[in-house]
Design a protein that fits this description.
about 325 residues, alpha/beta, D-Maltodextrin-Binding Protein, domain 2, 2 domains, ten-stranded mixed beta sheet, 11 helices, 10 strands, about 40% helix, about 20% strand
Length: about 325
Amino acid sequence: MRRRPLLAALAALAPALPAPLPAPLPALAQEPWPARPVRIVAPFPPGGTVDIMARLTAAWLQEVLGQSFVVENRSGAGGNIGAAAVARAQPDGYTLLMGSPGTQAINAHLYPDPGYDGIEDFAPISLVAEVPNLLAAHPSLGARDAAALIALAKQRRLAYGETSIGGSTHLAAELFRLQAGIEGDHVSYRGSAPMLGDLLPGRIAWGVDNLPSILPHIRSGALTAIGVTSRQRWSGAPEIPAIAETLPGYEVTAWFGLLAPKGTPAPIVARANAALVRMLAMPEAGRRLAELGATPLPGTPEAYRAHILAEHRKWGEVIRRAGIRLE
C-alpha cells in the first residue's frame, strides 16, 4: 500500500478540523490522560494506507484531546515487528497501535510465531475505517463483470496477481477463486507497481489491488473494473458492481483500527474511544476518508474485538483451504 497518490491525498487533508464537539469526554479519576505526547505505531512504512490512517487518527485525537499524538513507523515482517512492540509496551495509554487485518487476524495463520497474540495482547479502542479492494481485468479479455470473468476462467486457465502475499489483496483473490470454483496461475507481487506492470500490458489476465491505487487505471480505460470487494458498491464509483452481486457472501476489506496494549486502564480506553468515535461521526471526517476511498467505522471496543475474532476465523479458513504459505 505504498503509493505516491496516497501521500498526495494525505497532504490534501492538512487543514484543521472544526472545533471539537462541546459535550464532555469521560473523566479520569487519576492523572488526566493524555498528560504527555502519545505514540501511535504504524507497523508499515510511510505512505501506505495504514500509515495514512494512523496520521489522520493522530490529528483527530490531538484536535479533541489537546495533546500531541505522533506516528512512529515500525515496519517489517508483515506488520509483526510494530505490533509486537506495542503488545510489550507499558499499558498506560501512551503507546497505541494502528491495527489492520494482517496484524490482528491474518498473521497468526501465516507465521509460526508472530511475537504476539493479535486478540489477547491488545485492548481494542475502535475501528477507524475500511477500504475495499478492486478486482480488475485486462480489457483484451472482454469480461466486464464477475460472471463473465468466471465463465472465461472456467474455459481456460488464466494468470492472476495480487500485491502482497498473505495480505488483503491476496486473500481477496483467493476467496474469489474459491467461491467461483475456478483455478488459475497465481503470481504474487511485492506491491502495486510490480503487479500493474504485468496487468496493464496483459501479461496477467486479472488482479486485485487496493481501490485508491488501481482506480486511476480504471478511469483511464487501461483496465476493466470487474468488481469491488466490499459487500456493497462503493459510493465513490457506484457504477462498479460489487463482486457479492455475483458471489453472495463475498466480502474482503482492508480495515484499520486503534488498539492499546492489554491491561490499559478502562477509563483511558473509554476516553480515547469517545474522542475518536465522535470525530469519525463528523461530516468532515467522512469527506476526508471518502477522498481515500475509505468508509468510517466508528464503534465500541467490544464491537471491534468481535470484528477481529470474526476476521480471525474467516481468514484462517480461507488460508487453510487455499493452501497459502509464506514464500
